[in-house]
Design a protein that fits this description.
Blueprint: E1 12-20, E2 26-40, E3 44-49, E4 64-67, E5 74-76, E6 81-83, E7 90-92, E8 96-104, E9 125-129
Parallel strand pairs: 1-8
Antiparallel strand pairs: 1-2, 2-3, 3-4, 5-8, 6-7, 8-9
Length: 138
């Protein structure tokens, strides 16, 4: 059981991300995996993303992805092999399953596409933890 963000250090995780418009319409889903390489209560939990058919050991070549420090959406993972959204990237026996819903905080302007804000326009997102354990293999 996780009591503090420090308990996540060096743990592997499979992360499910669901993106939504400001109106709550689904945009996309993404699954990434990696190992927690640093934690900071203000900056967040830094995950080194898996880059190829790795399991729990990364080589230091992966990109970093930062999650909020809320631990309510971290659940013990069942044993097994999990595929991510990136072709050829999978993780075997991760320590945790983590799920977040991510909402746009404002609708794009008329001259802006749903996917990319125009140059100079900042896109903001609100992260909401999914506190129900994910259903895996059911």
């Amino acid at each position: 059981m996780l009591n503090t963000i420090n308990d996540t250090l060096n743990k592997t995780c499979l992360i499910g991300l669901s993106y939504f418009t400001a109106q709550g319409e689904p945009l996309k889903q993404n699954i990434v995996a990696g190992r927690v390489v640093s934690v900071d209560k203000e900056m967040g939990i830094t995950i080194e993303l898996a880059t190829s058919d790795t399991t729990s050991s990364n080589t230091g070549d992966g990109a970093n992805f930062i999650l909020p420090t809320n631990l309510s959406c971290w659940f013990n993972a069942p044993k097994g092999e999990f595929h991510t959204s990136q072709k050829g990237v999978k993780i075997t026996n991760p320590d945790y399953l983590v799920t977040w819903d991510i909402y746009q905080t404002k609708a794009p302007t008329e001259d802006t596409s749903q996917e990319k804000p125009s140059d100079g326009e900042q896109q903001w997102w609100q992260w909401q933890p999914r506190t129900q354990p994910p259903n895996v293999g059911q």
